[in-house]
Amino acid sequence: MPNITLIGAGSASFSLSLIRDVIVTEGLAGSRMTLVDINEERLNVAATLANRYRDEAKADLTFSATTDRKKGLEGADFVICAVKIGGYGPLEKEREIAEAHGYYRGIGDRVSCYYGGVGAYHQLRFLMDLARDMEAICPDAYLIQTANPVFEATNIVTRCTKLKAVGVCHGHWGYRAIARTLGLDLEDVGVLMAGFNHHVWMMRFMYKGEDAYPLIDKWIEEESEEFWRDGEYAEEMAPGVIDTYRLYGCFPVGDAVRCATPWWHHTNFEAKKKWFGKTGGFDSQIGWTNYLDGKPKAFEKMQRLANDPDVVLTEELPLKAGDEQHIKIIDAIANDKQKLLELNIPNNGCIKGIPDDVLVEIPVVVSGGGFQGVMVGDFPARVMHNVMIPRWVRMENILEAFLTGDRRPLVLSLMDDGRTRSYEQAKGLIDLLLDQPWNEEAAKHYRW
Amino acid sequence: MPNITLIGAGSASFSLSLIRDVIVTEGLAGSRMTLVDINEERLNVAATLANRYRDEAKADLTFSATTDRKKGLEGADFVICAVKIGGYGPLEKEREIAEAHGYYRGIGDRVSCYYGGVGAYHQLRFLMDLARDMEAICPDAYLIQTANPVFEATNIVTRCTKLKAVGVCHGHWGYRAIARTLGLDLEDVGVLMAGFNHHVWMMRFMYKGEDAYPLIDKWIEEESEEFWRDGEYAEEMAPGVIDTYRLYGCFPVGDAVRCATPWWHHTNFEAKKKWFGKTGGFDSQIGWTNYLDGKPKAFEKMQRLANDPDVVLTEELPLKAGDEQHIKIIDAIANDKQKLLELNIPNNGCIKGIPDDVLVEIPVVVSGGGFQGVMVGDFPARVMHNVMIPRWVRMENILEAFLTGDRRPLVLSLMDDGRTRSYEQAKGLIDLLLDQPWNEEAAKHYRW
Question: Chain A partners of B385 at a C-beta cutoff of 8 Å?
Fold first, then answer.
């Protein structure tokens, strides 16, 4: 049975949900899981919960825990990467600095947690270090890469190593909120979603075997105004999303609601409120602060659960498969069960006009044979030219800067930001961000 | 011997230089040339000069002239297109309107004559009309397309028709000014230039068999300051060009000096003067006004020459082949003489990362078999991602708007302009430009 290593296991609630998924997956009984995190306190909480949850469920599953990544990789068949290097503090400070230079909410991919800081340096460095360790210790293991930026950080691994790597996200489930808003029975909804991570579009939307895009048009005409009236609504159907659909002729799904909507929806809080509701949406100062505030609370809850032997964990987290795809991938590969998932793999011709070695998020058939992308074909022209290609280019600039240690691609990329007024503004900001103490190593890496 | 039809022959000096090139090309004796222009006055001047020049040269060359395009295409083997629809008046008014909306010098490709107005509508419409006529009247003729925008207007023909079309420009000769500034003997200079029309880069620059890029670096270090001191210098070596070389790692050639240098070199007259000398360069209000002022003078000179039987034309324009490539193409094809020229043809893999059906300006082997592109391979990453791909996308937006009659790609494209502050600004300007009387047909074509 497979050995599964979870890097970044200190996110105890995420770890527990993966463990739950392993336990409810029949074919994975007897698996061994190794929890890895550099934070011993968090790792202990996760390990305690893991063992108790397994015992309650009477599952055949072995755990070990280590702060030593290399040790954790020994014998691994699957490595799940879910790290966030450096926490949120530096990130929020980078955002503040960027705001003072004219970039509302910072220069990331809208929710600037996606990059984890300027140039995505810390996340890319970690992924490449991890990948090199895997090549040395478990070269045949699959890397199931779910750490942001999924696009850049997985793409650098698929380009620069021989590892079998796949990027995993859950954003595509956003289509359910669209269907729900339209009052459709999810059972009868069929969707083809494709794009890049956080830039996923509904290429086809079917209901009971017929094109359901006209149902969106009808909803816009007849119901949207009422839906938007009080300023509180599912972001998946926000005015900004409908405007994006009007502009590009295709419907964005999941995180694309933020990341693939046009820059002029996000220039300041007024614009955010106009397009995403009275809190300005998930990545406004209100939405994001709420999200960050929830983080320590979530960990405190995990600590409380771990420390209270009277809590029944399987009541807190019932034994029922969740939405995340990580364990489904492992089941499909380890047991050669064909599954159709929504994953990030090199394009290899699936989306026309995107180079073969660029990571795309598309339907993928997973089996004992690995990953087979589903042919998507042509993208709608306006989306391709005005959203997809510019996003692809940004990825290239970030990887080019990282791989060559050249600061210029970072500045050039920022010159393409609709909020940039001058070269001095962009160069000054990149230099200043790299001057911060937590970026000391990055500043040495990215040279002029 | 070939029948050559020249569309837009009313540009008498250009026509005369082509005639001169035919006359000095041994293999083209006996050719027939048909001069076509809708302006009868200009056409008569051109025809008078053509006949007198031929007689002086005692050349075996027959001329006819007509204002009827279809008639002019009958029996054509080669059609040279050099039209500029609508003249410069409307264009200059569009520029003024754009300036009032925050776009210094308008929204074209720097020198906004390149598009001939918003969306390049008039030029694209003409080219497609001409191409349809050719398909009906002379489907086997070659279209030698030199009317701006060479990129878009030739690409629409190669994509949408079965004509054998090639785009021709002379911008690449700009490398000579670079070599001259460095004090190099042109005989010993070797260059590989590639890109898109008006976006050509020196991929290789050799002198006496060795890499000559270090000679540029040395010149920058030791001579550039002195060279720039009085603010009057060859634009090919302007501070803006050197800055572009520093940013992207490759040297722009010819019109790329204006069109492929970054947007922040062109935001206002101060920036233009800083980067391109005290007149602000060829496309500043000073440079461009000088150029426009020269146009009627040039035609008056042609009229004077035509009306004065005592003038010896072969003294005015000596019998010596010029730099333009049009007639060389015809000689290569009609007489199956292999020639290596710098032309615009569909990429078909020659520049890596650019789709096959995108027109590229590269070295092309021309012969009786037609056009064979020379494999260029990888482009330097920073140029590719930050200049070439955005320029390719702009072409796609212009063609998409034209082919679908959709106004959105025009606005979306303008949203990517570094000077655009809001959607309303861009949409308002596109709408206003299309509202002008000379754009009545275009306004009906591009719908919301």
Answer: 393, 396-397, 400, 409, 412
CA distances from A436 to A97, A398, A421, A431, B395 (A): 10, 19, 23, 9, 40
For the entire predicted model, the pTM comes to 0.96
Q: Which two tokens stand for residue B32?
A: 């027939």
Contacts of A385 in chain B (CB under 8 A): 393, 396-397, 400, 409, 412
Nearest CA in chain A to B400: A381
Optimal mutation site among A382, A391, A416, interface B, most CBs of chain B within 10 A: A382
Taking CB atoms within 8 Å and a gap of at least 24, the contacts of A174-180 are: A174/A236, A174/A253, A174/A254, A174/A255, A174/A256, A174/A257, A175/A202, A175/A205, A175/A253, A175/A254, A177/A234, A177/A236, A177/A237, A178/A202, A178/A205, A178/A216, A178/A236, A178/A237, A178/A251, A178/A253, A179/A207, A180/A234
SS3 B77: coil
Determine the length of chain A: 448
- Flag if A382 and B408 touch (Cβ within 8 Å): yes
Q: Is the pLDDT of residue B69 over 90?
A: yes
Which CATH code is given to the segment(s) B3-102+111-167+312-319?
A: 3.40.50.720
B305-310 own/partner pairs: CB under 8 Å, 24+ apart: B305/B49, B306/B12, B306/B44, B306/B45, B306/B48, B306/B49, B306/B52, B309/B52
B311, B305 Cβ separation under 8 angstroms: yes
Q: Which residues in chain B are closer than 8 Å to A384, comparing Cβ atoms?
A: 396
For B188, phi then psi, to 5°, come to -100, 10
Would the CB atoms of A353 and B355 count as touching at under 8 Å?
Answer: yes
Instruction: Give bridge partners of residue B98 from the DSSP assignment.
Output: none
- The pLDDT of B173-199, averaged and rounded, is 97
Structural domain boundaries in chain A: 3-102+111-167+312-319
| Closest residue by Cα to residue A436 from A137, A97, A61, A29 | A97
Taking only the tens place, the pLDDT of each residue in B91-147 is 999 999 999 999 999 998 888 789 999 999 999 999 999 999 999 999 999 999 999
Instruction: Name the residue with tokens 């204002």.
Output: B67
Question: How confident is the model over B306-334, as pLDDT tens digits?
Answer: 999 999 999 999 999 999 999 999 999 99
Three-class HEC string of B95-140: HHHHHHCCCCCCCCCCCHHHCCCHHHHHHHHHHHHHHHHHHHHCCC
Q: How far apart, in whole angstroms, are the C-alpha atoms of residue B49 and residue A319?
A: 92
Instruction: Report which secondary-structure segment, H or E, holds B412.
Output: helix B408-415
E-assigned strand segments in A128-273: 142-145, 164-167, 189-196, 199-207, 210-211, 251-253
Q: How many CB pairs under 8 A join A and B?
A: 82
Which segments of A223-339 does DSSP mark as H helices, in order? 224-228, 239-248, 256-259, 269-276, 285-307, 313-316, 326-334
- Among B385, B389, B406, B414, most A C-beta atoms within 10 A, so best to mutate, is B385
3-state secondary structure of B216: helix
Pairing type for strands A339-346 and B3-7 reads: unpaired
Query: Catalytic residue at B77?
Result: no
| A76: amino acid identity, one letter | A
CA–CA gap between residue B78 and residue B82 (Å, rounded): 13
Distances in whole angstroms, Cα of residue A167 to Cα of each of A334, A353, B75, B165:
18, 21, 60, 44
Subunit contact B400:A381, Cβ cutoff 8 A = yes
Mean pLDDT of A173-191: 97
How far apart, in Å, are the Cα atoms of A156 and each of A396, A401, B398? 10, 12, 33
Model-level ipTM above the cut of 0.90: yes
Contacts of B343 (CB under 8 A, 6+ apart): B166, B167, B168, B325, B329, B361, B362, B364, B366, B371
Amino acid at B333: I
- Distance, in Å, from the CA atom of A180 to the CA atom of A189, rounded to the nearest integer, reads 10
